[in-house]
Amino acid sequence: MSRSVAAGRAPLWRDRTFGTYWVAQSLSAAGDSFAYLAVPLLVLQATGSVARMGLLTAVAGAASVVAGIFGGVLVDRYDRRTLMIVADLTRLVLYALVPLAWLAGPQVWLLFVVLPICEAAGMLFQVAAVTAVRNLVDSDRITEANGRLQATYAAAAVLGPLLAGVVAARFGPATAIAVNAASFALSAAGLWLIRLRPVQVDEGVTRERPLAEFLAGVRFLWRQPVLRALTVLLSVFIFLTYGFVDVLIYHVTHDLGGSEGTVGTVLGLAALGTVAGALLVAPLRRRRGFGATWIGAHAICGFAVAGVGIATTVPAVTTLTAVYLCCLSVGGICSMSLRQEITPDHLLGRVTSAFWSTHYALGPAGAVVLTWAAGRYGAPAVTLAAGAGCLLVAVGALFTPIRRAGVESAAGQPGLHPAPAGG
């Protein structure tokens, strides 16, 4: 689209459909931050074990990976908005069970039932939400839309953990989870009020068995050089960082003597980093290109992760976590926008789920290893090792097509052309 035409369009924030979607998901993100803090605190409070926290994270993550295998097939076959509403209502009901059950005392076993199902529903929702952006805005505004969504998600997440810490300290973590359950009702209501643009369907594409359709997404990833490299490197990165929040909570409460409120403050203030990353990503990518932006972000992530465990004060931990979240936001939005831009619409759900389920596959194992090691050897040793691994991921990217992605003009960018969509 020409610059003159783009200049004549109304600002994105004035688009009523996008705005409704934007507000509803921001409110839901604020609620999510309650569970983000409350679930680990519930386990730690009931068992005193960081390893048990990691096990729950791993079980929930495994359910998410399994759901991701077929989530993209569902998203490409059925109405994306309807699937998102169903996922919201499922999580509303299940999360509401936790505070009700906790009235009779700690029921840790219930978390091992509820959280995996909610994570599976969440994966379906996330796949649908990513593809929905393509049906909300024009293709040349995808990165801008993603940046705005992630910025407001993060802004909501700043207030969320702060309030969650206060609620958990005064009323208990189970009450904080009840707030999260209510947030899914708001999200579902907002989605009910909007309509998405129709999915662009390739008339030559025929429906196959679900596994065959999922494999079509996998093949697209494998044939596209940059996406293939991203999938491999992010699989390692996720292994190293999937249990980071559990280790962070353990470090703040066990090593630094912080309370539930302290943890909420750390996560809430650190979420400002995600806001900053979401606002910086579009101009950074325009000026530096995809490759330099993505590699630089993950290199800085490595230094920040390494520093968190050896930090001896809460302000230092908060600052380093904010840096980590800022760069994680930059890298994540870059890779997500790239997939949306170069993937055919009828394949987008399957490519998204193939990407996530593949590179998240090692995450559950990583959470178990990181939290077990933190309990045995301490948080400083674990974060140093994880940070060094993240830095190696960034160095490894220098020897892949990622390095050159976005250096040349859009017409001649190497590795950014869509791979064959057939098969």
TrEMBL record:
It comes from Micromonospora trifolii. The keyword Transmembrane helix applies. Gene3D superfamilies: MFS general substrate transporter like domains. InterPro entries: MFS, MFS_trans_sf. The chain crosses the membrane at residues 21-43, 55-75, 82-102, 108-130, 151-171, 177-194, 229-250, 262-282, 294-314, 320-339, 351-373, 379-399. This is MFS transporter. It is found in: Cell membrane. PANTHER family: INTEGRAL MEMBRANE EFFLUX PROTEIN-RELATED, MAJOR FACILITATOR SUPERFAMILY ASSOCIATED DOMAIN-CONTAINING PROTEIN. Pfam families: MFS_1 (PF07690). It is a multi-pass membrane protein. CDD domains: MFS_MefA_like. Keywords: Cell membrane, Membrane, Transmembrane, Transmembrane helix. The lineage of its organism: Bacteria, Bacillati, Actinomycetota, Actinomycetes, Micromonosporales. It comes from the Bacteria.
